[in-house]
Amino acid sequence: MEVALRVLAGLGAGLLVALLALPLAALFLKVRPETLLAKLSDPVVAAALRLSLETALLSTLIVCALGLPLAYLLATRSFPGKRVVEVLVELPMVLPPTVAGFALLLAFGRAGLLGRQLDALGLHLPFTTLGVIVAQVFMAAPFFISPAAAGFASVDRRYLDIASTLRASEPYSFFRVMLPLSLPSLMAGATMSCARALGEFGATITFAGNMSGRTQTMPLAVYMALESDLDGAVVLAIVLVSISVALLLSLRHLHAGFLWRSGDAPRRTS
C-alpha cells in the first residue's frame, strides 16, 4: 500500500512538472538562435522591451515606496477598518485584470471620478505611459505589501522591547531593527511585484491601450504579434520567460544568502 501511494504521488508530481515544463520547452524549441537575435533588433520588439523594463522598474519603486509604510501599519497596528484595508490590498490578486482596468478607467478617465481634477492638474492617465505605470502599480502592489507585512509581523518582539528599554525611538527601531530583520521578505515582495508588473496585460490594455512605443508592453506586443508575426511573438515570450526566471533565481539566491548569513542554512559536513 505504501509503495503504491509513493508511485501515485511520483506520477502526479511528474505530470504536474511536465505540464509546467513542456510549454516553456516548446517556446525555446520553436525559434532558432539566429532568428531570436534578428528579432531582438526589430524596432517594435525593442520598443516593447524597453517600455516594459522601464515601466516595471518605476512601478516597483512606487509600490515599495508607498507600500512599505502601509505594510508596517498593517503588521504593527490595530485600527477600525483594518480588515477592510487588508481586503482592498489583496483584492487585485483575485480581481480579473480587465475588470481592474475598467475600474481604473472609471476612476481616472476624463469622465471618471477624478477626471476633472486630474485634467485641472494637467495629468492624463488613460492611454499614456503614465497610465501603464498606474495599472502596473494597482496590480502589483499586493505582491509586495503582503510579504512585507508578514515579514514585519514575524520580527521577534523581544528585539523591539530591548530597543525600547534603550530609549530608542520608533523610527530608529524601524530602521535599525525591523527593516534589517524583515529584509528577506521585503526583497521577495519587491521581486514578485516587479515580475507581476512585467507580465501585466489585462489592466494595461483596458486602461492604457495598445500603442506601439507608448503603451505597448511586451505582453501586449506578444498578443498582437500572434496575429501576424509568430516568430516575433515567440521571441518576446522567450524574453519575458527569461527575465522571469532570472528574477526568481535571484530571489532564491538572495534568500539562500540571508540564510547562510544568519546561520540557519545546513552546515556542510567534511
Q: Explain this structure to me?
A:
By secondary structure, the protein is an all-alpha fold. It has a domain at 55-215: MetI-like fold. The protein contains 13 helices and no strands. It has helices at 2-30, 33-40, 43-76, 82-94, 97-108, 115-120, 129-153, 157-165, 170-181, 183-198, 202-207, 218-228, 230-262. α1 (2-30) packs across α13. The longest helix has 34 residues, at 43-76. It starts with a helix and ends in an 8-residue tail after the last helix.
What structural class do the secondary elements suggest? mainly alpha
Top CATH class of the domain at 55-215: Mainly Alpha
Number of helices, where a helix is a run of at least 4 consecutive DSSP H or I residues: 13
Distance between the termini: 38 Å
Strand content: under 5%
Q: What's the CATH H-level homologous superfamily of the domain at 55-215?
A: MetI-like
Radius of gyration: 22 Å
Shape designation = globular
Order of helices and strands: HHHHHHHHHHHHH
The level of helicity is: over 70%
* CATH topology grouping of the domain at 55-215: MetI-like fold
Note poorly predicted spans.
Answer: 265-270
Q: Report the biggest beta sheet as strand number plus sense, adding barrel if it closes.
A: none
Q: Please tell me the overall pLDDT.
A: 86
Architecture per CATH nomenclature, i.e. the level-2 architecture of the domain at 55-215: Orthogonal Bundle
User: How many β-strand stretches?
Assistant: 0
